[in-house]
Amino acid sequence: MSTAILTGTPVPGSPLEGDLRSLGFDVRVAGGPEHTAALVTAVPAGERIALVDPRFVGHVHALRLALTDPRFPAAAVTGALTAQPAARAALDTAVRTIAATVPAGAAAVTGDGLVDDVATALEDAGTTVHHPDLGSLVAEVPAGAQDRHRARAAVEAVDDEAVRLRSAVKARDGFFTTFCVSPYSRYIARWCARRGLTPNQVTTASLLTALIAAGCAATGTRLGFVAAGLLLLVSFVLDCTDGQLARYSLQYSTMGAWLDATFDRAKEYAYYAGLALGAARGGDDVWALALGAMVLQTCRHVVDFSFNEANHDATANTSPTAALSSKLDSVGWTVWVRRMIVLPIGERWAMIAVLTAVTTPRIVFWALLVGCSLAACYTTAGRVLRSLTRRAHRTDRAAQALADLADSGPLAAQVARAAAQPVRSLPGLIPLAAAVTGAAAVLATAGFTGFGSVWTVVAAAVYAVTSGIAVARPLKGALDWLVPPVFRAAEYGTVMILAAHAEVNGALPAAFGLVAAVAYHHYDTVYRIRGGTGAPPHWLVRAIGGHEGRVLAVALLAFLLNNTDFTIALTVIAVAVALVVLAESIRFWVSSGAPAVHDEGEPA
User: How many whole angstroms separate alpha carbon 164 and alpha carbon 598?
Assistant: First the structure.
């Protein structure tokens, strides 16, 4: 339920009341500040409430942005203010305080200027009030007839619906998405909105389409591959449409946040599995390539997430490299070239779809591995240069985010506590050096000693120790954001290598399932942090062992079991991890405390 209170007598002939009702508000008219305060108090605290100056002139979409966006406890434009339940107490106090100080007179009768005064009072009292960027939209409170005439002319000069459609598209997107999808997907989003479809329904349709595409790829036939490529493109169009529908109709939700945060990866990795199954039907085993592509892509994302978390609230956060990047942004064509180089989701899915239709799964995966490797080198090198040339002071919040992204289990935590004091006196690169040393040791040992070697177990134990040393002090160093990606590469890579050395049917698919389950946990961690609610609970990390615990467990299983039993054990662990992390993730994202996270930038 939503209530809008006009803070004074409506202007004759004004469409304002109709506009507010079209946005779902129950409109009430107040007789001035004291009456407004009484009406505000009468509205139940669990409802959204809006205060609107009756003289308001502006676009309906300006009111929509200010009054209906569910992501902000309080929001305002000139002449219009809204407060959700979280900000209602502050709003009630502000309105009563201002009403008590307004002297008798015209203002006491009409409520002129009351809305903007309340917005100012809220901010002065420490309540964050969101002010949407209106662009060319109009939101004014004209003082007289002449100003009202001018404001109405300004409203008529701007097409409200055209602005709404443009704003439905992300401000920053990839080349393929911007020029090959968004020009028409925004109209699909509007079509969906007018028929009452929700972003979650479109997101689910995108997932189902991608899963059908994976099923077509799994047939292993040329017709199946062609259908898979076409359906993958349709899935991507729907994937763009769901976000555009959310922005067009301002339908943001916690469930939508969870679906949006996880389904992209589920679709892509399910498609990899479908391609691998299709190749196997044709006698070509590409599971190692499929798993390698998933590992590489996930590690790329962790690099993105870690770098951004380490630096987005850092102070003195400038560097010559960043200045050069900003200068290049002024040259239009370089922006698109640099966005395409990183092979973002639009370009990547287009490449996968076309190659699936005209080539073989093996070629698709090799193209993915080469393209994503080049993109990873480009982006990581640039970020390393930025980190080394800037004098950023990273916050405790950033250090905690990196520690959460590290996903350290009980073994690393014990080592970290024991080593905390001596590590503080060591050079600044010790966290990264310890992480790289342990990762290199376990990957090299697993790769060169073969399946079932005791030396892999020893190397995994060393990795557990170095992992604890790496997180023994706050991760505030210039390159400490590389620690979580190194851990991801070590864990995923060890599972992949040992499964490949097992040389039995089913080992690599089982490893694919385990890495997918763990990767889901890591993506879930990222989006919880982005939403400001912190990492998953400690019991969950302990229950699934932490990254070092899983590496040691897989190494021990390879040592203790034969090849076939090892495959069965990997499958059991994959299922167990998936059930635990999915159950906790679903519980969290459907809870009332989950954040409404929606990306405005396109991840790689």
Answer: 18
